[in-house]
Amino acid sequence: MEAVEAAVKLGLISDDQPSLDLFDVDYFNKRVDSLLAAFPEDFFNHAMAVKANSLRCVMKLALERNLGAECASLQEAKHALKIGFPCEKVVYDSPVKTKKELQEAINLGLHMNLDNEREIQQVGEYLNTFSGETPLIGLRINPVVGAGNIAMISTATKQSKFGLPLMAETKQRILKLFKEHAWLSGLHIHIGSQGVPLEKFVQGAEVLMSFLASLEEVCPGQIKAVDIGGGLSTSYTEDSEPEEFQYKLYRQQLEQKVPLFFSGKYKIITEMGRSLFLKAGTSITRVENVKNWIEDQNPILLTHLGTNQFPRESYLPHIWRHRFSLCDSNGKRKEGQKLTVDIGGPMCFQGDYLAKEVPLPFPESGDLLVIHDTGAYTMAMYCRYIKERERKI
Fold first, then answer.
1. Helices 198-218 and 247-257 sit at what angle, rounded to 10 degrees?
2. Which of 34, 133, 136, 306 could form a disulfide with 352 if both were Cys (CB 3.0 to 4.6 A apart)?
3. Each residue of 34-45: pLDDT tens digit?
């Protein structure tokens, strides 16, 4: 908790700023080191998932390490370009694009992954009049390998809204799309993230490469890039990265099942987010009040962070839950006998609880609640509902 003490001494937590996010640059760089050690080849574009942490200061760190940027909206893509990411390393793959967005992405030279037949038609019509160099344009394929442990972020079921489902009865139809549109030069899959076992990522890659072999028979040399998505899981319950999701283990399994990935024949794109950023982040918020009025009910801690920064945790507490620590007002970690409490946030509705049934060493007003593993899908999800003040980072 040295960082918390340091933050207090620097006056970073006050009445004017009762919450704070910390991002561990050294830890993030170690995660990037691990990724690059596992996949060092220069034909890889390791595109950070911008939606995981779109903060300019964090994205600049990724840019300094020569990572690319995977963007779920054109606005994210423009954000990445403004920060300095080269257009050829910006991957734009929103599942819902307007005709204007499709055209603008081409004009900007982005690597774009299309989602469906209508987008293919609209891009084809525009390319008939486009006089510039056609950038990499891929098509998202759903390998239909099934869901992981969290259905709502698993994207490879038959009913997934993402991409075109690749099954025996649809294969020829997808091949026909490539034959009819020679400018389609990439393939893309992304089967999910947290809760998806490593073997399912590898299984998706196998399905993709099997399809690519068929595609090479009918459209030899057309495919230049293969985007295998990302999303390797990490842990919210342990203080270290899970052994079963090491990048080097992912590489080993891919080498066994799809060695063509490493031949250099294709540009390979990955889209890592949570596994890069999560454990580099820590959030701190001051406990303003402790309500302990009803004998058979948990005391309620009232803090400045709830649904405004942790919407998934508030709405789906059975799926998303962080580790917590408690420090005194000077930032020193509190120990001793614990009391089970509920943690409420500042938003104006009853469901605004960061977590319930949390054991903490007897909390008091003025204590500092430390929320661990907040570097992904929290800092970037801050909501200005009720105009609650933003926190420093």
1. 40
2. 306
3. 999 999 999 999
